[in-house]
């Protein structure tokens, strides 16, 4: 029986590229300072072209085997050496990875294997503040560690060093601190947490994925920055993403360890099969050397003074934005953000966070061409809007504040969005794992996540997300997670 071909007939290069460009035009802009999450725009002319050329020069090289492609080792050594000199301590070693999540996965694997080998730990645990990035929970789930989540201070949003120390036991493989946390942009008390871990012979990882390439340059630009890196006694590993404030394209991070002995637990070798002897320092086997090359080229092009100047631009924007937000009626900035991330929440007449207004505000801002990231309530911490500032924010702050004021008024004028209390009651009794596909489809449809596009975008999301997010915010966590998985499964429908 004839079957359909897997692919249509080949087309001319310009035709294929034209289609790609048309698809891309429907996405949020990654340049221009209006998208306040996911992307890092240094606002430097020619940098994108440099990164693309560097990638192209290495696009066909396989980073798997540095004995065949020795320049790969040279590029990685240069990048890791730069990270060691910025954030390390003499003798520190590391690896180039594909991103923050991979760096964190590797740091957790290293700690697990170290705890097993050196301390005889049999049921390894990961102690982390409630604000630690979700990637640590993913690592624990992948690698079979139990998580011990410690609530943060509800006023400063910083990790509670005493409570974290109290959570450490004989089975703890790793303790985590963030510099800064993604959600609120505050730096955890790293010296206290690392000292408490060291006292028990336990490793301590600093997640500087987002702040690691920015905080030292903010310090160089004259700003106060708390101690957070590998030079702090007791810190044994650290992650720093080059695809954030290093301004590389996506797929670039570094994980560092205090010494070679520790890094050895990260490596994997296998000589027990008939193929080539395998040694993989990181998760991937074959890996794109193009990402290494573009990160290397971008870093060398920007240089020390360049990064310092970019940090200064962020600091100036941050000051201006915080001053504007703090002067605005009906808005509260959460904590005392120390780097480039701001979380704020609209408040009601009683001064309490107003989730409904926050969700409307996000939609209103999107209508005006800005993407601010909604963060839902968690364990007593208020729901809020999150902004990641970049050098491209400079020059946009006044326009942003102006649109925020208009959008706040528009959000106030809208009917409050609340989740249907009947559905929330019903949901509380559902077992998310026992739900069949029909029931899941019904809940998704009710939540507005059934793929029916009202004109907002190609993945079937409604244009106004407030009702969807209000419902998600009210659902129990496990059900929320099941719905998210089913929704994304419906987007990647093949
Ligand atoms: C503090 C922190 N850790 C980890 C990550 C995960 O990084 P990635 O998205 O590169 O996997 C992020 C991403 O924003 C982050 O901000």
Automatic annotation (TrEMBL):
Protein name, entry field: Glutamate or tyrosine decarboxylase
Pathway assigned in UniProt: Sphingolipid metabolism; Lipid metabolism; sphingolipid metabolism
Superkingdom, natural source: Bacteria
Pfam annotation, one family: Pyridoxal_deC
Localization in the cell: Endoplasmic reticulum membrane
Predominant cellular place of this UniProt entry's protein: endoplasmic reticulum
Annotated transmembrane regions: none
Membrane topology summary: Single-pass membrane protein
InterPro entries named among the record's database cross-references: GrpII_AminoAcid_Decarb, PyrdxlP-dep_de-COase, PyrdxlP-dep_Trfase, PyrdxlP-dep_Trfase_major, PyrdxlP-dep_Trfase_small
Similarity annotation: Belongs to the group II decarboxylase family. Sphingosine-1-phosphate lyase subfamily.
GO cellular component labels: membrane
SUPFAM superfamilies xrefs: PLP-dependent transferases
GO annotation, biological process: carboxylic acid metabolic process; sphingolipid metabolic process
Keyword entries, A-Z: Endoplasmic reticulum, Lipid metabolism, Lyase, Membrane, Pyridoxal phosphate, Sphingolipid metabolism, Transmembrane, Transmembrane helix
């Amino acid at each position: 029986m004839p079957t359909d071909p897997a692919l249509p007939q080949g087309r001319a290069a310009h035709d294929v590229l034209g289609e790609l460009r048309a698809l891309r035009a429907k996405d949020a802009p990654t340049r221009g300072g209006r998208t306040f999450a996911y992307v890092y725009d240094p606002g430097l002319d020619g940098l994108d072209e440099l990164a693309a050329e560097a990638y192209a020069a290495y696009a066909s090289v396989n980073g798997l085997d540095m004995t065949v492609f020795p320049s790969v080792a040279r590029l990685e050594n240069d990048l890791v050496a730069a990270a060691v000199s910025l954030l390390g301590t003499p003798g520190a070693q590391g690896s180039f990875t594909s991103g923050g999540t991979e760096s964190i996965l590797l740091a957790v694997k290293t700690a697990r294997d170290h705890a097993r080998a050196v301390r005889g730990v049999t049921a390894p645990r990961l102690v982390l503040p409630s604000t630690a990035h979700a990637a640590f929970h993913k690592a624990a789930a992948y690698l079979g560690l139990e998580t011990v989540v410690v609530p943060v201070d509800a006023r400063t949003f910083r990790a509670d060093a005493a409570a974290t120390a109290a959570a450490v036991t004989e089975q703890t493989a790793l303790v985590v601190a963030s510099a800064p946390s993604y959600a609120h942009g505050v730096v955890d008390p790293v010296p206290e947490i690392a000292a408490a871990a060291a006292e028990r012979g336990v490793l301590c990882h600093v997640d500087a994925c987002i702040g690691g390439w920015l905080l030292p340059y903010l310090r160089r630009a004259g700003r106060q920055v708390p101690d957070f890196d590998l030079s702090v006694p007791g810190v044994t590993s650290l992650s720093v993403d080059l695809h954030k404030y290093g301004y590389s394209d996506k797929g670039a991070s570094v994980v560092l360890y205090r010494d070679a002995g520790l890094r050895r637990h990260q490596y994997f070798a296998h000589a027990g099969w008939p193929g080539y002897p395998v040694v993989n320092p990181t998760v991937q086997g074959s890996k794109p050397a193009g990402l290494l090359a573009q990160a290397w080229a971008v870093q060398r092009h920007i240089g020390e003074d360049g990064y310092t100047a970019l940090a200064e631009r962020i600091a100036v924007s941050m000051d201006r934005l915080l001053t504007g937000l703090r002067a605005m009626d009906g808005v509260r900035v959460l904590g005392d953000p120390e780097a480039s991330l701001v979380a704020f929440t609209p408040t009601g007449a009683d001064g309490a966070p107003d989730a409904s207004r926050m969700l409307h505000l996000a939609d209103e801002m999107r209508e005006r061409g800005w993407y601010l990231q909604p963060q839902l309530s968690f364990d007593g911490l208020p729901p809020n809007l999150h902004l990641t500032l970049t050098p491209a924010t400079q020059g946009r702050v006044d326009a942003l504040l102006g649109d925020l004021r208009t959008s706040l008024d528009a959000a106030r004028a809208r009917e409050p969005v609340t989740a249907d209390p009947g559905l929330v009651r019903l949901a509380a009794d559902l077992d998310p794992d026992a739900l069949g596909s029909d029931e899941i489809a019904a809940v998704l449809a009710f939540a507005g996540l059934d793929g029916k596009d009202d004109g907002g975008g190609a993945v079937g999301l409604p244009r106004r997300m407030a009702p969807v997010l209000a419902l998600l915010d009210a659902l129990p966590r496990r059900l929320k997670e099941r719905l998210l998985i089913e929704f994304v499964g419906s987007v990647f429908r093949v």
